[in-house]
Amino acid sequence: MPVATDxxxxxxxxxxxxxxxxxxxxxxxxxxxxxxxxxxxxxxxxYAIVGGSGTGKSTLLxxxxxxxxxxxxxxxxxxxxxxxxxxxEAHVLRQRWGVMFQHGGxxxxxxxxxxxxxxxxxxxxxxxxxxxxxxxxxxxxxxLAPEAGLQYPTELSGxxxxxxxxxxxxxxxxxxxxxxxxxxxxxxxxxxxxDTLVRSLHELYQSxxxxxxxxxxxxxxxxxxxxxxxxxxxxxxxxMAELAEMDHPVIRGYFDGPRGRAAQAQAQTQAGDxxxxxxxxxxxx
Length: 285
Hints:
The chain has 10 helices and 10 strands.
């Protein structure tokens, strides 16, 4: 079957694009990472980006959040060309999204509550008492116990660190969330807890979520659309069911291994047992 383009394979979401990447080229010396890469993320969807090692997933994320400048091409986020912004304009735009970093990205000298409250202190004039209350609320939303707010990053388990990073990403009620490997390093129970957390937060905030991941279970359980990177570009995009029907060798190589088949079988079994799982309460794992 033909490989789908990234301009909309899932008919249910006809919302406008909130991220548009066009003809993106990225090089490190003679090594080409992206070669005329195109990508479109629609408002309100959970959009995952996958690919083998060295395909440029993390580099693409860094380019979208303005931590690395590509060699050529354009990136529009929230109707703004991010490559033409002044430093002050970029500072304002960054307040409209939140980032959950793979390893937390929290300040080790601050407890969880102060880490979560830091964006509010930097970007608002709210009183300290109100900031602490809002931080406590985000900590609760992330599935952590209230007392976790007084703990420091080094005192947290891997799953707790992911949730604390999520709480900070939510601090400014962002329109757009970027999640970098949200389940990496977690045991199956912890990873399943993050799956449920992401679905619940998506339902609550109705935000657009972009995820870098290699977790096949996560892809089946959470994502609306998945973009597969390979050969310097997006070689296929669609729901997991749509990707399962595509013949591109990169896609088949990524999803046809034992883990891929097991994740698909589990997703199909769960779909048969439970037609709708979004919006259920989540607990700390």
